[in-house]
Amino acid sequence: MPYDTMTTSWNNAVHSLNKGLMVITPDGIIDKINDPLIAMAEKYGVPPDFRWHGASFFDMTFRHFGSVFDPFSHEMDLPSVKEVMLGKLPDYSFEYAVECNDRQNWVLCEVLPLMMNKDGRVHGAMISFTDITKFKHKELLLEQALAHSYPLPGHIPICAVCKYVRQADEWEPVESYLESRLPIEFTHDICPDCIRRLYPKYSSILDDPELPD
Q1: Sequence spans of domains, the chain
Q2: For residue 38, which phi and psi values (nearest 5 degrees)?
Q3: Which CATH class is domain 3-133?
Q4: InterPro entries under this entry (predicted)?
Q5: Are 72 and 95 in contact (CB under 8 A)?
């Protein structure tokens, strides 16, 4: 494949990613940035006329980006970013929340050393920005569910006949016992054995080979 064609394919791939990418030089100057990052930045309030190329990553301030910069700067540890660029840390990542259209969005920022050749030296850093909002919402929902759950004891006294569970001096159905302690809700059905035992008049339908399993 000719070099020009390979370069064009690589550039197209970089700008087609579903995450933002930024390359900074060893002295912290923004050297390259892909289209998804520009779109993400504008979505979260960065002025569309902001000149990324040649700007200093370490000198970005509230003046450049407005309130969108606050959560980013609050969560980012600049010394850790610099240690990645010096080869003292293999990587660094953090999450931050951004308010957009009355909705909280979450972004994962990852910093990796940029290796330009096989000499093992670090020649800057590549910083990626990934929208993790849908995953963060699921995580928060799970945390809320777990917060409303109660740990179950290792041994639960249950009646061998009626299957009620003893809690202190009270007995309650196993369904309500579990529903009050776990984020679950029971729905009722009837198994084939109970149909045959309780409703023998209708149990022959279970033997119909045309019925789905």
Answers
A1: 3-133, 149-206
A2: -60, -45
A3: alpha beta
A4: PAS-like_dom_sf
A5: no
